[in-house]
C-alpha cells in the first residue's frame, strides 16, 4: 500500500518543518500567557525562585529543583518570577509540538508526525498549560525525548547509557518522570542483557550512570531540605494531604470512579474533538488493503508508546490525578498513537474520499472545534442544558477565559487591598489558593486564612500567615484599625460579605473598623 504523503513538497528538511512548527506555536501561545500565578502550586514555584524552601511550599514537595533552576535562569531575562516561568512553559510547549512531529516521522511517517503536531498545537490542554507558570508543559518535551531514547534502546539496541543519564536527570524537573520511566528502562536493559545483546560492563555502566545523574539533583535537594529525615517528612506530609485521601485504598469505588472521571476529562481536554477519532479506531478495527495488514505494520511501535504511558495511567486511576496537567506530561505518546490511528483510518476510508483530502478535512474540523473549546469554554458552559457538576466540569477553567478570569480577579483584589494601609489593616481571605496568590503580591500585609474546608492543606505552617476556624479567637496586630474581608469567590465566606464585586472580577469585599479590643464578625472573634 502506498504511504500517505501530506508533508509540503518544498520542505524536505525535517528540521525546517520542526522549526516552523516551533515558531507557529510561539505565535499561538504568547497572546494568552498568564500575568499572575493561577494556583497554589504556581505561587509556590514563583516564590521558590526567590527563596527555595519546600517546608514553606516554595515549591511544593518534592521540590522540582531543576525546574526551579531553569526558572532562575529565565528570571535573569524576566523581572517578574511568574513571567519567567510562563516563558519556560511557552518555549517547552513549542518544543513539544516540534518534538511530536520528529518522533512521529521517526516511528511512523511524515503524515503521522504532521498530524500529531497539529493535534498538539491546538490541544486545549496543551494550550492552557503552555501559558501558565506550572511544570507540566516543561515536563512534556522531556518525556518525549526519554521515549525516543527508550525506543532506540528497545528497537535499535542503542542509547542504553544515554537513556539512563537522561531519565536520571529529568527526575529533577518532575519526580514522576523518573518513577514511571526508570522501571521501563530497567526492564529493557535487563531483557537485552538476558538475550546477550548487551554486555555486563555496559549494564553496570548504565546503572551507575543513572544513579549518578539522579544524584546531581537529589543530593542538593535533600541538603536544601535539611537532610534525609526532613526531606522524607516533607514528602510524607504532602502525600497525606494531596495523594492518600484520593486513592482507591482510602476511598474505595468512589475514589476509583472519581479518578477515572478525572482521567477521562483530562483526555477530553487534551484531544478535544480528536477523541472521537480514538473511539472510532477502537470500535472499527483496521482492514486489509491490497493484501497488506496496515494494523500490523507498526503494531510493535504503537504498543511501545502505549506501554510508556501505562504506568502513569495506572497511577492516575488507582492513586490520584490532581489536575489534568498530569496527563499533559505524557501527552506526546498519546497524541502520536491518536495521530497514527487517524492516518491509518484515513487510508482505510479512502474509497469515500482520497485520503489526503479526507485527512485535511478531519484536521480542519478538529482545529475549528478545539480552538472554539479553548476560546469559548465559558460561553459553552453557560449555555449547556445540563446543570450536573460532572457535565459542567468538562468545560472547566482550562481555557483562555480561565486564564483571563484568574488574572482579572487577582489583580482586582490586589488593587482593592492596596487602598488600605498595611501598617493599620489586616486582610481575611476565604479561599486557600486566593490567600496564597495575595501572599505573593502583598508580602507587607497581615493575611489571615479562614479555612472553610478541613480537607485542604493546613495554612498555619507558614511563617507570618495564619489559619483560623470557627473555634479560634484571632489576635490582630495592636495597631490595626481596619479589618478587610475579601474573596474571589463570594460563596466561600457566607454571611461575612455582601456580593458587591463587579461582574468581570466576581470578587467581594467588605471592611470593619476596629474601635474596641475585639470584634465579632459572623462566628469569628478577632482580638486586638
Question: Any overview of this molecule?
Answer:
The protein is α/β, with parallel strands linked by helices. The protein folds into two domains: 367 residues, no CATH class; 120 residues, Rossmann fold (3-Layer(aba) Sandwich), CATH 3.40.50. Helices cover 59% and strands 8% of the residues. It contains 21 helices and ten strands. It has a five-stranded mixed β-sheet with strand order 5-4-3-7-8, covered by helices on one side. A three-stranded mixed β-sheet has the order 6-10-9, with no helix packed on it. Helix 21 links the parallel strand 3 and strand 4. Helix 9 crosses helix 15, helix 12 packs across helix 15 and helix 13 packs across helix 17. The longest helix has 28 residues. The protein is globular, with a radius of gyration of 25 Å. It starts with 13 loop residues before the first helix and ends with a strand.
Shape: globular
Helical coverage, percent range: 55-70%
User: Low-confidence parts, pLDDT < 50 over ≥5 residues?
Assistant: 6-11, 288-293, 453-461, 494-505
| Terminal-residue CA separation | 82 Å
Instruction: Report the portion of residues in β strands.
Output: 5-15%
The radius of gyration over CA amounts to 25 Å
Give me the number of helical elements. Answer: 21
For the largest beta-sheet, the strand count, sense and barrel status come to: 5 strands, mixed
- Number of beta strands: 10
Class from helix and strand fractions: alpha/beta
Q: Record the strand order, biggest sheet.
A: 5-4-3-7-8
Overall domain count: 2
* Averaged pLDDT: 83
